[in-house]
Amino acid sequence: MTLIILLFTLGLLLLAAEVMIPGGILGIVGGVSLFTGCIVSFVILGPTEGMIAIAITILAAITLFYVQFKILPNTKFGRRFFLDDEISATSSAIGSEARDLIGKDAESITVLSPSGYVMVGGKRYEAVSQSGQIPQGTILEIVSVNSFQLIVRTRT
């Protein structure tokens, strides 16, 4: 009986810790511990007590998850573990008009090592160099475009 209580307690504690230390390992080990506790209950105590152990495990897990996701985030202690803020920024591609820039001149406004920023027609673009490191102020040729960067090389 002590082994069963130990397995259930360990399983519930590991499931509770999974919310605070995410990663999946504690949750998996906790679930295996609870499952093993149920199996041991069937073997040692019999089928009726094994079914009672399963019912208690399900009820305890539901109660644990309710406390962790409904009550804990509203407490001072729980706010440390849950994020309230969100990042609303998005990454945008250069756009199809960037294809029109191929063959035009660009000026490096930062060192390209091999990536940096260039200025084309008064607009700033992120660029990557095919010619290795390029100093600031170099006139470049735009040779290609991918989704987010201009591909440039030194003008020959």
Walk me through this protein's architecture:
The chain is α+β, with helices and mostly antiparallel strands and 156 residues long. It is 42% helix and 19% strand. The chain is built from three helices and five strands. It has a five-stranded mixed beta barrel. A hairpin with a 6-residue loop joins strand 1 and strand 2 (115-120). The protein is rod-shaped. The protein starts with a helix and ends with a strand. The model has no long low-confidence stretch (mean pLDDT 87).
Strand/helix succession: HHHEEEEE
Beginning-to-end CA distance, first to last residue: 82 Å
Gross morphology = rod-shaped
Based on DSSP secondary structure assignment, what is the total number of beta strands?
A: 5
Name the poorly predicted regions: none
Number of helices: 3
- Please report which band the strand proportion falls in: under 5%, 5-15%, 15-25%, 25-35%, 35-45% or over 45%: 15-25%
Portion of residues in helices? 40-55%
What gyration radius follows from the Cα positions, in whole Å? 30 Å
| Major sheet summary line | 5 strands, mixed, barrel
Kindly state the mean pLDDT as a whole number? 87
Sheet with the most strands: spatial strand order: 1-2-3-5-4
Content-based structural category: alpha+beta
